[in-house]
Amino acid sequence: MLRTVRIAGTGSYLPEKILTNYDLEKIVDTTHEWIHSRSGISERHIAAEGEATSHMAAAAARRALDSAGLSAEDLDLIIVGTITPDMVFPNTACFVQDQIGATQAFCFDVEAACSGFLYALDIARHYVASGTATHVMVIGAEKLSGITDWEDRTTCVLFGDGAGAVILSAAEHGRGIMKTVMGSDGRLNELLNVPGGGSRHPASHKTVDDRLHYMKMAGREVFKHAVRCMSDAATQALDECGLTVKDVSCIIPHQANARIINAIASRLGAREDQVFMNLDHVGNMSAASVPVALDEAVAAGRIKSGDIVLFVVFGGGFTWGATVLEW
Ligand code: ACO
Predict the structure, then answer these.
(1) Could you write out the DSSP letters of every residue in 164-192?
(2) 316 lines ligand 1 (CB under 6 A)
(3) Which residue's C-alpha comes closest to atom 30 of ligand 1?
(4) How far apart are CA 276 and CA 81, in angstroms?
(5) Which of 306, 319, 313, 265 is nearest to 291 (CA)?
(6) Sheet architecture: strand order including 250-253
(7) Alpha helices in the chain (DSSP H)
(8) 284 part of the active site
């Protein structure tokens, strides 16, 4: 019989350095007003020199362990969702394992761009539900500053660095994670990607000169698909649980853009106070967005035991998904 799976602890980490929109005015031709009115973002955190994705992930992981009352040796599995791994290999989860001392865990990464955390969460849920694992650490962590083109004002104003972590364990009561729906559309891979550094365009002087190691994005197209895919996924996930948006206490969407989030909320018929947003001070952190927002929502008392929570995400690939759970 499948076990019910719940989130037993959360943690997050943001690097110390803050880059405001006013700082960006000195780097590219932009203004605070443009950035804030188009995206809702005022500032973002930027990793320090030498601070890698795994360092941020491990800091978030330690906080999640504390909040769950577990030690690193209790973990059977660590999954990191990221598009900014420390290295091509080993995987970032192995680096986290080493840093926190999770000697009993096996470790791998999931790459689904901004949807990476939710994809990882769903994989982890199956391990716990089947009894294959007892405690699983799921992390979304990104150092997007390393793949941001700081000369491209259309993208560099949107992204930030950080990490969020949750621990999944079996639940004694309640419904726990009830449903995840996910989708992908690989035909649209060109609208959001980092073309260089993989097997298509291995790193070379030319790929560096051509700026192929930076994020490329067709902003308007991404916007349109993000709104449609996220609202459809959220509706489907709620339907399949026999719930409506009225039953949801807290919606935590991928924090890409306030206008995208408001458009989804309006399509779903959600009230403003049902939607949690923290992008004003963190920007878009890709796979780290939802777990950092979740940790902040929990700390702010926005989520109580028994509440229905909805996560909804969208990212490069394209990839998207929605998860409904009872807290
Ligand atoms: N400062 C000032 N002006 C700018 C800036 C800037 N930083 N960036 C672009 N502009 C200019 C453009 O050059 C353009 O000028 P033009 O009309 O003279 O050509 C004008 O502003 C309008 O540009 P648009 O791209 O049409 O602006 P838009 O209203 O679409 O907003 C934005 C751009 C914010 C990128 C929006 O399209 C968006 O949010 N898209 C989704 C992006 C996103 O969320 N991506 C991530 C999702 S997946 C993931 O998380 C990886």
Answers:
(1) EEEEEEE-SSS--EEEEEEEE-GGGGGGE
(2) yes
(3) 220
(4) 21
(5) 313
(6) 177-184, 319-326, 308-315, 250-253
(7) 21-25, 32-39, 53-68, 92-100, 116-130, 153-156, 205-209, 219-240, 258-268, 279-282, 289-299
(8) yes
Backbone φ and ψ of 50, nearest 5°: 85, -5
**pLDDT value, residue 173:** 87
| d(C-alpha 281, C-alpha 295), whole Å | 14
Model confidence at 1: pLDDT above 90: no
User: Is 225 a known active-site residue?
Assistant: no
> pLDDT digit string (tens) for 230-250?
999 999 999 999 999 999 999
CA distances from 14 to 11, 99, 141, 163, 251 (A): 11, 17, 10, 7, 22
The radius of gyration of the chain from alpha carbons, rounded to an integer in Å, stands at 19
107 forms bridges with which residues in the sheet? 78
Residue identifier of the C-alpha nearest atom 11 of ligand 1: 154
At 58-94, the pLDDT tens digits run 999 999 999 999 999 999 999 999 999 999 999 999 9
Q: Is the pLDDT of residue 99 over 90?
A: yes
User: Which of the residues 135, 254, 257, 278 is marked catalytic?
Assistant: 254
Q: Which of 193, 196, 190, 191 is nearest to 212 (CA)?
A: 196
Over residues 115-140, the mean pLDDT reads 98
